[in-house]
Specification:
The complex is a heterodimer. Chain A is of the alpha/beta class. Chain A is 37% helix and 27% strand. In chain B, a hairpin with a 2-residue loop joins strand 1 and strand 2. The N and C termini of chain B lie far apart (53 Å). The chains are: A alpha/beta, B mainly alpha. Bound molecules: adenosine-5'-triphosphate (ATP) and magnesium ion (MG).
Chain lengths: 240, 353
Amino acid sequence: MKRGEVVVEARGLSMHFGGVRAVDQVDFSLWENELRCLIGPNGAGKSTFFKCLTGQLTPTMGDVVIRDVHVAGRESHEIAALGVGVKTQVPNVFDGLSAEENIWIAARRWHAAKRAKTLTAETIERLQLGDIRSDLVGALAHGQRQWVELGMVVAAEPWLVLLDEPAAGMTHEETARTAELIQEINQTAAMIVVEHDMQFIRMISRQVTLFHEGRILMEDTMDAISSDPRAREVYLGHRA
Amino acid sequence: MKIAQDFRGSVIVAILAALFTLIAPSILEFFTIITLTQVIGLAILALSLALVWGYGGILCFGQTAFFGLGAYAYAVAATNIGGSTGAILIAILVAAAFAAILGYFVFYGRVSDVYLAVITLTVALILYSLIRRTSGPEYKIGNALLGGFNGTGAPPINSPGDGAAMLFPEHTFYVAMAALILVYLLCGWVVKTHFGRVCIAIRENETRAELLAYDTRLYKLGIFTLGAAIAGLGGVFFCVGVSRVTPDVFSLSQSALTIIWVIVGGRGTLIGPILATFALYYLTSALGAQQWLNTNLVLGVILIGFVLLVPKGVIPSITDWADGRRERRVSRSRERRMRVRRSRATAGTEAAE
Ligand SMILES: Nc1ncnc2c1ncn2[C@@H]1O[C@H](COP(=O)(O)OP(=O)(O)OP(=O)(O)O)[C@@H](O)[C@H]1O
Ligand SMILES: [Mg+2]
């Protein structure tokens, strides 16, 4: 398989909170068009790693390069302006606005009024949000709020997409649809997806990165990882 | 609150206000017309906070700083220039420039919301105590004495280009009302533009706005500065209405009152705080004319009552109630239609049998 160029690269990336090494000396590369899953037990540092990539946190040490731009320590909006779409673990939506207005705000950032309007309509169609388009997002169910957030990511037409637990709290059916949507997004964007749901990961991903205590423990296919004793120990050890 | 409500409502309100303006001098007493100009100034101040806090989500506790700066800048400039037109522009610019500088440090320094409230209030109070100390003859800007706690005279408004042609109080009232209506329409328009909607989105969730590649600092600075410019204009009409400006424009009680108007009128509306200003102003004057109840006590009770019982404020509560009724009516008629259809269907099957 031809991999193209590296679009995200972390070198010696560390994020410490006092004595806690949430991310510790991580080297990571994502290739063009790739769809990578990050897994790891609770507290492994996946979300912290994400926040270092998106500018929500300034890394303690190390560097992040997104398509030749050094972004460590930059503002979130500057990183997003490179064409990076982000869905956070805790849903970040505009509660007091309608689903349609939420998505319009995302689309209008990049397009003139007319195009933004059609793009909003297309996104609503694509995510099947038609029934709730004029409902306040604050009043929606958890799964629907997640989709509105995905809608905002999609409407900005990013070339790099980072999703932190996109299927959390969703029903089986919703999860399956989310998996489909992720594959669709992957047609035009490189992606990193954090998930706990192994079945979901099998649905979408080839290459998986396993985090443990702030470090990358291994990087392989899901099958290889699930049959590896080290990985099993990490998960079992955590459960016990 | 949804933004998509159309602009037509604002236009209707503006037309009603314009009609009131035209008939007011013939139905109201001369003295009332004079005080109205002053209240219009306060209403413009309330409107500015309605924009900055209600839509921009920026709790500026010291909006009076810009109001007071506008008033002083007008008084000083009009005294020196000998005309009001340029002085009004100067007042707006001074308030806006001061806010732009203050806002730059606050927003680009990523000061948190609570500190922002404290900082703006502190600025207003610092201006209050500074300007109170300017009583000597050495505190003079051009021909204008600042006058310490006695304040300084604010020249009346004149026709543009003719400093000697002072307006009659009725005409000053027309000008003030026109300004209020225009600024109200301007705000109504702004909150529907892309800029305005992004400000509302930032109020709802700043992180999300950042992650959608909006530089939130710039938007907050923008709406903050616009609000200050409007407050400065409010200061102009207030001091023209009183024909003086004293340090009280910067006082703690004036800052608190402004917040009360917006809470009572409702955050997220523009007309609410304006109406609340008029209503509470006249309530306060009525209370001041009697001895039974302490005015501040009544205002305090009103504030607590609103925070506890009508936390959204008057106008949003009324809108919600009306929306609820409409929805109930719609769903009831839908139900009725369904019932009719169902009974027809049953009748049909019965007939077929
Ligand atoms: N702002 C913070 N301050 C202090 N410690 C933090 C902070 N954010 C995260 N941590 C700590 O860093 C570690 C990694 O947290 P992180 O949220 O990145 O884990 P995660 O892999 O995303 O876990 P989960 O699967 O539960 O989402 C945890 O020990 C957490 O307590
Ligand atoms: Mg996490």
